[in-house]
């Protein structure tokens, strides 16, 4: 229920962070983490269930989700201009490439 917004939200993030020439690569690479999570999560769940008990995967992945939330809340920012640790060179590159795209007229 809560992860349903993940894929549309990632496109919103790439809109502000990804230079146009890199956007398609990043937008297709981002959802791959969910597949990698399934590949890694199934064996971990089997191990936890076998050695600790059937509720243990729920607790384990719940704690992992809370930790990921804290990391994301600490590191993620809406725009490069609001990020406190981005270098001036990175900020200039992103803003310059996105700025050039904002003012291009779309053919009708």
UniProtKB/TrEMBL annotation:
<dbReference type="GO" id="GO:0060076">
    <property type="term" value="C:excitatory synapse"/>
</dbReference>
<dbReference type="GO" id="GO:0005326">
    <property type="term" value="F:neurotransmitter transmembrane transporter activity"/>
</dbReference>
<dbReference type="InterPro" id="IPR036259">
    <property type="entry name" value="MFS_trans_sf"/>
</dbReference>
<dbReference type="GO" id="GO:0098700">
    <property type="term" value="P:neurotransmitter loading into synaptic vesicle"/>
</dbReference>
<feature type="transmembrane region" description="Helical">
    <location>
        <begin position="58"/>
        <end position="77"/>
    </location>
</feature>
<dbReference type="Pfam" id="PF07690">
    <property type="entry name" value="MFS_1"/>
</dbReference>
<feature type="transmembrane region" description="Helical">
    <location>
        <begin position="26"/>
        <end position="46"/>
    </location>
</feature>
<dbReference type="GO" id="GO:0030672">
    <property type="term" value="C:synaptic vesicle membrane"/>
</dbReference>
<dbReference type="GO" id="GO:0035249">
    <property type="term" value="P:synaptic transmission, glutamatergic"/>
</dbReference>
<keyword id="KW-0812">Transmembrane</keyword>
<protein>
    <submittedName>
        <fullName>Vesicular glutamate transporter 1-like</fullName>
    </submittedName>
</protein>
<dbReference type="InterPro" id="IPR020846">
    <property type="entry name" value="MFS_dom"/>
</dbReference>
<feature type="domain" description="Major facilitator superfamily (MFS) profile">
    <location>
        <begin position="1"/>
        <end position="108"/>
    </location>
</feature>
<dbReference type="InterPro" id="IPR011701">
    <property type="entry name" value="MFS"/>
</dbReference>
<dbReference type="InterPro" id="IPR050382">
    <property type="entry name" value="MFS_Na/Anion_cotransporter"/>
</dbReference>
<dbReference type="GO" id="GO:0005313">
    <property type="term" value="F:L-glutamate transmembrane transporter activity"/>
</dbReference>
<keyword id="KW-0472">Membrane</keyword>
<dbReference type="GO" id="GO:0050803">
    <property type="term" value="P:regulation of synapse structure or activity"/>
</dbReference>
<keyword id="KW-1133">Transmembrane helix</keyword>
């Amino acid at each position: 229920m809560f992860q349903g917004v993940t894929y549309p939200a990632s496109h919103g993030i790439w809109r502000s962070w990804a230079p146009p020439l890199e956007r398609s690569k990043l937008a297709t690479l981002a959802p791959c983490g969910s597949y990698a999570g399934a590949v890694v999560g199934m064996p971990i769940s089997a191990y936890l269930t076998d050695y600790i008990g059937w509720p243990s995967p729920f607790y384990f992945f719940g704690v992992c989700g809370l930790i990921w939330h804290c990391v994301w809340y600490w590191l993620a920012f809406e725009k490069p201009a609001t990020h406190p640790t981005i270098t001036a060179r990175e900020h200039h590159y992103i803003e310059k490439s996105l700025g050039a795209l904002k003012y291009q007229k779309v053919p009708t």
